[in-house]
Amino acid sequence: MELGLLLIPRISRSKVKTRGQSLLPEPPAGLMAAMPERFQDALESILSTNATALLLDMEDLSYISSAGLRVILLIARQLQGKSGKFGVCSLSPSISEVFQISGFDKIIPVHPAQADALASLGS
Questions:
Q1: What phi and psi, each to the nearest 5 degrees, are found at residue 104?
Q2: Which pLDDT value is given to residue 62?
């Protein structure tokens, strides 16, 4: 299984492959809020590499806009359509609250830490 890992909120163009997993280090602050289309493009670029699992590590994210939530939902549905796996991890209390209020935690697997998420997505 090819796994794409995106750490939020910085992004680098370089990929690091480890044990068949694609690692994309972190997107720019405010990417999900101010530039949701760039965020979506970054995620779709990962999916175009035949990744069948995607993890968004949101440890450093303190704000998410409705446009950012929309992008997450679109990407989750794209992966679902390919029988892929999708998850988020390391949500701050405020982002976790947004996920709970919006019901996203019922649609998208939320993991407390990256290690838990990788174990779940890798299986």
A1: -65, -30
A2: 80
